[in-house]
Design goal:
This protein is of the alpha/beta class. The protein has 15 helices and seven strands. Strands 2-3-4-1-5 form a five-stranded parallel sheet. It has a two-stranded antiparallel sheet with strand order 6-7. A hairpin with a 6-residue loop joins β6 and β7. InterPro entries: P-loop_NTPase, TOR1A_C, Torsin.
């Protein structure tokens, strides 16, 4: 039997080599298209098909709730929006989400969980494209060059698969006017230059509105209302107004003015109990032994606000991770 399997494997490799040799005569784009649909090629190479794309997202909200602490709004909004978009076989537009909150509140982490839920190769998938504005679009002196680069980035990657996840971090540092070139790809168009972009997902990560969110939740707590009673509609209008009034970034942006953002996702400041949950999760991940006193000690190292009643940690889980790294491993 092992000899037969070896012969079959050899024949399969031979057929694949013959197939690859035969299509060398085609154009680059035609070769890519053919390779994507060849079953032998797609066994070991990521292709835009059911073998590599995940359709069942039933566990997305559960994973978010288990790994992202203190973000009941974000977890629910993101999971419902993504599941609804993937389930819809004929969406009217791409899914466009704007994540807002202070540094460290899990915006990037949530976008990675979304990527992990959509693609078999998780965040290593070529269908997940992550860009940082201050690194990839920092040439403020040549806006045209940045615009051309951004357009090509979206067009080229959308040619690879009908379902792409584009994430833009530090979106609030985009050169003024740059985001406007994205509007054709986000709008309610059946096709742009013959290509359908409506099954894509775009996520913008921004610190803009972080202070607005923090001020809102402080007032909420001062009114003796529980955290879980905050609803997304309460914050959405404040975030949108802040976006429009922010210098650069979304300032007078067509994305805002034409209402192309489907979901505004607020990330709330963490309470002390959430800080300890972050610390415990990180300690367990590193297989460290710990006591409850260890979690208290970590929480005590951090600064909280407001001064009158220190309810909230000023940053997020990133700093907590750094403190855990300083713990002895034995």
């Amino acid at each position: 039997m092992s000899k037969i399997r070896s012969i079959r494997a050899g024949c399969s490799k031979l057929r694949t080599r013959q197939f690859l040799t035969k299509i060398e005569q085609f154009s680059t784009q035609r070769r890519k298209s053919i390779l994507m649909w060849n079953p032998d090629f797609c066994k070991n190479n990521e292709c835009c098909n059911d073998q590599w794309l995940i359709e069942d997202l039933s566990g997305l909200e559960k994973e978010l709730n288990e790994k992202v602490f203190g973000q009941h709004l974000a977890n629910k909004l993101v999971s419902e929006a993504v599941k609804s978009h993937i389930k819809n076989k004929d969406p009217k537009s791409p899914l466009v989400m704007s994540f807002h909150g202070r540094t460290g509140t899990a915006k990037t982490f949530v976008s990675q969980i979304v990527a992990n839920s959509l693609f078999k190769k998780r965040i290593k998938s070529k269908f997940y494209q992550f860009k940082v504005a201050t690194i990839h679009f920092k040439n403020n002196n040549n806006l045209k060059e940045c615009k051309d680069e951004l357009i090509k980035h979206i067009q080229y990657n959308s040619e690879q698969c009908y379902r792409m996840l584009f994430v833009f971090d530090e979106f609030d540092f985009m050169p003024v006017g740059l985001s406007d070139v994205m509007t054709p790809f986000l709008d309610y168009h059946a096709a742009v230059d013959g290509r359908d972009y409506r099954k894509n997902i775009f996520i913008f990560l921004s610190n803009v509105a972080g202070e607005v969110i923090n001020d809102y939740i402080v007032r909420h707590y001062e009114s003796n209302r529980p955290r879980e009673s905050i609803v997304s509609k309460d914050l959405e209008k404040y975030i949108a107004i802040t976006d429009l009034n922010s210098k650069g970034r979304f300032d007078d942006s067509k994305i805002i003015n034409t209402k192309l953002i489907n979901v505004y996702v607020p990330f709330l400041p963490l309470e002390r109990k959430h800080v300890k949950q972050c610390a415990e999760a990180e300690i367990k991940k590193k297989n460290y032994s710990f006591k409850k006193s260890t979690l208290e000690a970590i929480a005590n190292e951090l600064d909280y606000f407001p001064d009158a009643i220190p309810w909230f940690y000023a940053t997020g889980c990133k700093s907590v991770v750094n403190l855990v790294d300083q713990l002895p491993s034995d």
